[in-house]
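pinned: reference chain
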Amino acid sequence: MTKTLSGKNMLNNFVKEHAYRLSQISFRGSNLTIHPLRNIRDFFYVGNITIGTPPQEFQVIFDTGSSELWVPSIFCNSSTCSKHDRFRHLESSTFRLSRRTFSITYGSGRIEALVVHDTVRIGDLVSTDQPFGLSMTESGFEGIPFDGVLGLNYPNISFSGAIPIFDKLKNQGAISEPVFAFYLSKDKREGSVVMFGGVDHRYYKGELKWVPLIQAVDWSVHVDRITMNREVIACSEGCAALVDTGSSNIQGPGRLIDNIQRIIGATPRGSKYYVSCSAVNILPSIIFTINGVNYPVPPRAYILKDSRGHCYTTFKEKRVRRSTESWVLGEVFLRLYFSVFDRGNDRIGLARAV
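pinned: its structure tokens
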């Protein structure tokens, strides 16, 4: 989920020298945790976590676009909170309160939360005394099929100042290598996974291509150019793209997104742009060239069907405007490419998903 970052200057570009051979990490390793995710209409991928003692279960988005973990509080009385599981802190023997509060504005809504501490479990991974947010108010999340968000971005962009759960697990030695990876399935509810501590090679074909981060502060990479029909249609002088598992679309500057909609003949209706479903067979791929490697996104990937069987495009204007051109590569891109997020070497690995 791309969130509004105000006053957070990105700095300190560095690359660690102690590169390990990620290709040798296998799913057979005892410290690899593979955690199932459910695909909800190709729009959200949610997984279960538990919080507290005894454990209370929540459905969260595992989000590389933010750093906070939060779930609703019993004190949140908004209509959004009332439709979701809320954390009952009085029922947990390991709960600890703090006095800090924070707020986050996402692309789809806003929360205000209190920082608290408790035991959090992701499958067999356990983080004790983990700081997280209990939302006191929520707006804009009406109708969403998840309770909260588990942020997997760098700690630099944390709004609460709390240590993110991946960093805490890493510091506790709970994961063998400081990496996590995503396989996002298409159409099927089951089959998607997030894995921690290593890589299961059954989920991709060929070799992982490594892309260094622009700076070791978030999961943004440098894109060389964006082309359609062998013509550069965006990012002509290079640009940044955030690889965001919490975003369902491909997002970019409004004028460039409008141009893509024109190229593919999409017409606006409501909040979406629609095309004839038969166009899937004739429209061009959009190609993102990253670190010298082409990553095509074909029309079967960037066009989806709504509940009435009408076909719409998944290109969207990026709400957060920056002075330089920037994009968001969300689930539309990540369904095609298995992604490895390597905190040890500040890089992302991409390979075609099976």
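why pinned: The longest helix spans residues 254-263. Confidence is low (pLDDT under 50) at residues 3-29.
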